[in-house]
Design goal:
This protein has 385 residues and is an alpha/beta fold. The chain is 26% helix and 28% strand. It folds into two domains: 3-51 and 148-217 and 310-384, FAD/NAD(P)-binding domain, CATH 3.50.50; 84-144 and 218-307, 2-Layer Sandwich (D-Amino Acid Oxidase, Chain A, domain 2), CATH 3.30.9. It is built from ten helices and 18 strands. Strand 16 and strand 17 (324-328) form a beta hairpin. Helix 1 (19-30) packs parallel to helix 6 and helix 2 (63-69) packs across helix 9 (337-350). Bound molecules: flavin-adenine dinucleotide.
Length: 385
Amino acid sequence: MSLSQSPRGATVAVIGGGATGLSAGWWLAREGVDVVVLDRGIIGWGASGRNGGGCSHHFSPLFVEEQRLWPQMDGLLGYPTEFQAKRIRIAYDEHQLELYGRAVRNAARQGFASTLLDAREVLEMVPLAGEDAVGGYFYDFGGHANPHRTVQAYAWAMQDLGGRVMQHTSVRGFRRAGGRVIGVMTDQGEIECDQVVIAAGPATGRLAAMLDLDVPMVAARAEMIVTEPLPLMPIGGVDGNGLYGRQTLRGNLAYGGGPHEWIEFGEAAGPPSSTPLMANIAGRLARMFPRAAHARIIRSWAGIIENTPDGRPILDKPEATGNVVIATLSSIGFGLSPASGRAICDLVLRGACGFADISSFSLSRFRRLEADWQSLQGWRETVTG
Ligand SMILES: Cc1cc2nc3c(=O)[nH]c(=O)nc-3n(C[C@H](O)[C@H](O)[C@H](O)COP(=O)(O)OP(=O)(O)OC[C@H]3O[C@@H](n4cnc5c(N)ncnc54)[C@H](O)[C@@H]3O)c2cc1C
């Protein structure tokens, strides 16, 4: 019996039902591949359902594909992601405005336009903003989407194409033969497979270590707050004052942004949010949007961000294991997910990404990493997750 006919097997087993794993599963299912996505909990319960929804990663080799795909995603998936195009970044002093210019020039080199805004134009375009902004930039690219809707859309679209999701299925190890993985061991039994994708967010390093692969990464806790609904602004994606986030279609402001706390990553998908950090974010949000300072905070949460030593994703199929793709996105995985899923699909089926040069995402770049890199970076846990 072929693996695809076995209820306990699949051609490709994807570990992790976040945006990365589900997008990869969807791209694979589009190619007619029998794929199962395994998650130890509920899909999207990790960072993929807890993030700011931003989709504007101009410094990534996947940027052009990110920008090409997002405006099409609702149509391609057949379910809404609530993607809203364009973004505005507000500056509070001239130095900050000058620094933003670097991002603008980088995007321009790749064919994406931005417009410099003076203080008056910021007020016109961002009705909730205040008088102390010195200016900003309007990005004629990028945007934001609803993380929950997007994760669900990937899962439904993949299932429509025959892909499967197994929730509450925790991967505990691997069965290997001839240097390849032939089975994924879970608390629900073994899933036989031809290929494996490890897209388990902050748990990716721990799972890869079971295959003798050293994937250096650490976890950090980040928080977000949500206000009650406010009148809709023309552009819902406004960053500034160290904050990232979006205005939802209902009008809520959903915002987060440092300080991130380094944590020892445990089993929890998201530790509880802390009142001091909530107050910090709320204070900065009130400065960015003084006309929303009266709004009540109705929700908050914490999420765990996966981080590699250089802050760039690892998307690679290391030679040592042959049929295993490592996929960890290092804190920018939501926005990149349409493109990263496609890249992972290429790595699984063809051994290389066919639409972008992702050589800078190889695992081998960390070959000569100092053993105590975490201490050198000062990335030691401050709280326990
Ligand atoms: C507060 C916050 C704000 C953010 N803002 C943005 C933003 O605006 N834009 C952006 O692009 N990115 C943002 N990010 C980062 C982004 O959310 C992540 O990079 C992205 O969601 C990672 O997706 P993932 O699928 O790789 O991992 P995850 O979403 O972490 O999913 C991994 C999944 O693997 C599962 N898993 C783990 N171990 C096992 C196991 N042993 N067996 C089975 N399943 C397992 C988990 O249950 C989880 O569902 C933010 C993150 C946070 C926390």
